[in-house]
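REQUEST ID: PR-0412
SUBMITTED BY: lab tech R.K.
PRIORITY: routine
TASK: structure prediction, single protein chain
INPUT:
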Amino acid sequence: MYREHPAPPELADLVDAFWTRTVDAPQHDRSYRVLPDGCIDVIVHLVGAPRIEVVGTMTRALLVPDTASDIVAVRFRPGAARAFFTVPADALTDARVPVDALGWPAAALLDVLATLPDARARVHHLARVLLAHRRHPLDPLVARATRALAQTRPPSIAELADTLGITRQSLARRVRQAVGVGPKELARVLRLQRAALALRAAPRDHAALACELGYHDQAHFIHEMRALGGLTPGAYARTLAPTDPS
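STATUS: complete
OUTPUT:
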């Protein structure tokens, strides 16, 4: 079972959500699709091979096999993971890195989390660890840029750079180092997320949805969905089910 947990107020500017996933009886012929979302996650695996890994910003969808699992994790807002790690986010893009390689005490954290009785207690403890390990302030320019790119009709990169008072090259560098991808790629990923949300909500006419989301046309929508998500909009919609954890 997959479940999301809200961040406490003191982490609300950094954390999109905590999440847990428990599978006792996996269906070994099943996998679930995780779409790029512009976020970096820290994932604690408590069964199988216990470990803590940082999953960098994804540029393409992942198919994750359904296996026995007991996970507690945090998904940072785009650009916010930079507050906790000394390496730039683009050093982690499309990578899975042991958290102890980035200066976090993995063994001690695993030991504590394994003793806690339920998901709520584990999320609470992980939140306390995050508060203790914050190292850098957020880049306010990156925060403004990510908010603008998350709009239904985001500005062009040139318009955004002009609004922020910097060059396109400087904007691209600062967003890439904080988020893991540049502003153009982030805009594509955030639009993909809006498309996936709409497809999960209810059956939709794909041509109308393409127009609503700001794609050039339905062919552009199909191309982007396939390039980033690995499926056409219609194929993605057919994979959805009430138990889908994505």
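NOTES: The domain at 140-239 is CATH 1.10.10.60 (Arc Repressor Mutant, subunit A).
REVIEWED BY: pending
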